[in-house]
Amino acid sequence: MLRIIKGSEVATLDELTVVHQRISSFELMERAALSFVNWFTNQAMSKSSRVAIFFGPGNNGGDGLAIGRLLHKHGYSIHLFSCFESNSGLSSDCQKNFELIPFGVLNSSWKEFQKEDFDCVIDSFLGVGIRGELRHQAKNIVSKINSFPGKKIAVDLPSGLPADTSCLWECVQADITVTFAFPKLSLLFPEHAKYSGEMVVLDIGIPDSIYEQFNSYFFFLREIDLCAFHKTFHRFSHKGDFGKVLLVAGSKGKMGAAMLATKSALRTGSGLVTCLVPEDERCSIHSSVPEAMAVFYDSEINFSAYDSIGIGPGLGLDKLVLLERVFDNFPYPVVLDADALTILARNPYLFAKIPKGSILTPHLGEFERLFGNFESHIDRLKFAQDFCVSHQLNLVLKGANTVICLSDGRQIFNSSGCRHMATAGVGDVLTGMLTSFLGQGYSPEAAMICGVFQHGLAGELAGMEKVRSMIASDLIDQIPASFKKLGVE
Ligand SMILES: NC(=O)C1=CN([C@@H]2O[C@H](COP(=O)(O)OP(=O)(O)OC[C@H]3O[C@@H](n4cnc5c(N)ncnc54)[C@H](OP(=O)(O)O)[C@@H]3O)[C@@H](O)[C@H]2O)[C@@H](O)CC1
Ligand SMILES: Nc1ncnc2c1ncn2[C@@H]1O[C@H](COP(=O)(O)OP(=O)(O)O)[C@@H](O)[C@H]1O
Ligand SMILES: [K+]
Q1: Mutation pick for ligand 2 pocket among 188, 426, 452 (CB with most ligand atoms within 8 Å)
Q2: Which end of the chain is more exposed for a tag (fewer CB within 10 A), N or C?
Q3: What architecture is the 227-486 domain classified under in CATH?
Q4: 125-181: per-residue pLDDT in tens?
Q5: Can you give the C-alpha Rg of the chain in angstroms?
Q6: What confidence tier does 300 reach under pLDDT thresholds 50, 70, 90?
Q7: Which protein residue has the closest C-alpha to ligand 1 atom 25?
Q8: Taking the model in full, what pTM does it have?
Q9: Dihedral over Cα of 190, 194, 197, 199: its sign
Q10: What is the per-residue pLDDT across 1-39, written as a single tens digit (0 to 9) for each?
Q11: Is 325 flagged in the annotation as binding?
Q12: Looking at ligand 2, which atom is closest to the CA of residue 423?
């Protein structure tokens, strides 16, 4: 899994790569620029587009100059805007690229930029090199860039955004940030959505072994990481091997949540799925998910007969006693979502009773209900880390780039998913998937890695087809295609 390192460590990462691959730092910059240009030319942007590139004196500016040179070669009309007073302080690779500005590419001061003259702005003013608060002049440059109403594409980071911390000043408001090698931590913070826009991570050929030389408990989960976590089943596998799972979900008026979680667990591969529901609601489960079984609140339930239990979707807030019964009678990790989390928030003494290794799946609102308000995402993540380590629990903090917070302190950002997933019931589907993988014998870590990534992938597939019309059931329908895409049978 890709390690997310600090912005201040990028220079060392570059140096180690240059030595390891026997290339020059100029060649590494060229590689970054080529990967950007390759991405850019695949966007639906006409060759007649007029492109403005703001470039600073550091290596971020060097990237911009190289990008400008290469885009000019592709036939784009390029106008460079320098964001410094004197040419004497350029970084060495920026200087080399400055000397290579081709004939036909205009170069002016940022002050001369006229927004009406362009179709697109590339922001390569500042990257990971920013230290401390943005200086006065830099703030003016950022405002100038932000005055452009069209598409703004940030190179590596929107200028002004610190790489690892929350930002307290105005930065470039990019529509898309194209970042090199690994996502800079601050691009993953929800409070930076208006600066980072969409995020694209481009591989520039830095081997994983180089990242391993840095200490970091933040990771980025990609499709290639999944294969190692999936179990394989053999020819003689029977439904018992695929797990017996129990979903404690649904109440009067909220049976849809139970159905979504149940269908999702079946589609994720569970052999036997039972739903614990109010007896009055038996028909709704039987008629909508005939493959599932139902048990009822008043009956004697042998919780230990199940391989995994997921609790919460549509449960209702009056199920404290039931929740305690599960905790007292089931010693293995459970999945806790939705109303189960609200019951926990109201009764914090229950934290100590949750089986070790369990998975709590709050969205930001539920996280706040459980643990209070945080000024920044980094503070929230630090709290989550301490909570997970001290209680030996796992937490899936849902949202764009869902964070899997493991009980050993590691925090893994998911890369799959799309904005169309922000619709009712999509979280219930995740509960079904996580419970299903646990029931199939996956460790909590493997269940979260496979479940969270694949949930996002199914969401992307459904979103591609249904765009903003997507509903949670569409995501369930795409679970089979997500298995196929991952090559998991
Ligand atoms: N492996 C990778 O990812 C690769 C990374 N690469 C690229 O290198 C970039 C990093 O380049 P970098 O280190 O030269 O820093 P960069 O962002 O250009 O900024 C330096 C400038 O910022 C200025 N400055 C500082 N603080 C400031 C403030 N508060 N307010 C205002 N200004 C401030 C500082 O001024 P000074 O303090 O020196 O006066 C200096 O001029 C990285 O983002 C990526 O694009 C690729 O080329 C290759 C592979
Ligand atoms: N903008 C987004 N980008 C990617 N994924 C998202 C986005 N918004 C929501 N999601 C995902 O959709 C799911 C929504 O879950 P949740 O808020 O619990 O929904 P519900 O309670 O309606 O079931 C989560 O898995 C979350 O990560
Ligand atoms: K930038």
Answers
A1: 426
A2: C
A3: 3-Layer(aba) Sandwich (3.40)
A4: 999 999 999 999 999 999 999 999 999 999 999 999 999 999 999 999 999 999 999
A5: 25
A6: confident
A7: 130
A8: 0.95
A9: negative
A10: 999 999 999 999 999 999 999 999 999 999 999 999 999
A11: no
A12: 22
Fold category of 2-214 in CATH = Rossmann fold (3.40.50)
- Choosing from 130, 134, 208 the residue with most ligand 1 atoms within 8 A of its CB, the one to mutate for a pocket test is 130
Residue 240 has pLDDT above 80, yes or no: no
Q: Give residue limits of the domains in the chain.
A: 2-214, 227-486
Dist. CA 352–CA 438, nearest whole Å:
21
User: 72 with 102: CB under 8 angstroms?
Assistant: yes
